[in-house]
Sequence to fold (183 residues):
Amino acid sequence: MAYVGLIRQASISPEVSEYCNYIQQALLDISDLVQELLSVTHQKTIPCVIDITEILTEMLKEYQAAMPGISFALNAGVPLTCYANEQHVRLIFSNLLKNAAEAAYVANPSGYVTVYATESGKYLHAAIHNNGDCMDNPQSKPHGNGMGLGICYWLTEQLGGKLQIERGVNGGGVVSVSMPRNM
Fold:
């Protein structure tokens, strides 16, 4: 990153300066992701009973406060609990909600993110819908690099679950997470 700073300090064109800003932001994002990944892989997994509904409600309130133009909603009929590592579950949903909110905002600053959470048999299911065009437009997340999604995919598999990305029926994107209620 020091080299990017040196290049930016030199007398260069505005275009080169802009590219340096993108490179520096990407390096910071990668550094954060590497730190998160190291934290996740070096910790002891301590599963416990967690309330997914409560976690999602808390996270959606935080995102609503940070992005007031986006409408955030949770549709869950009953409190949903599972036995898993809470930090892993929080990391998965935090990254997926952030991605959905950013894609929704780029598509329409007054867009939406809606989470549908249900259970069926031994599994919990959460489908995160947004009105963004992340399936067709790589610019819907201009600062993303896909590493966070890869980590979410890996963590979901470690929990015995599955993560899928699909195009929404009315456009936008849907990220679905299924995980067992018990490890």
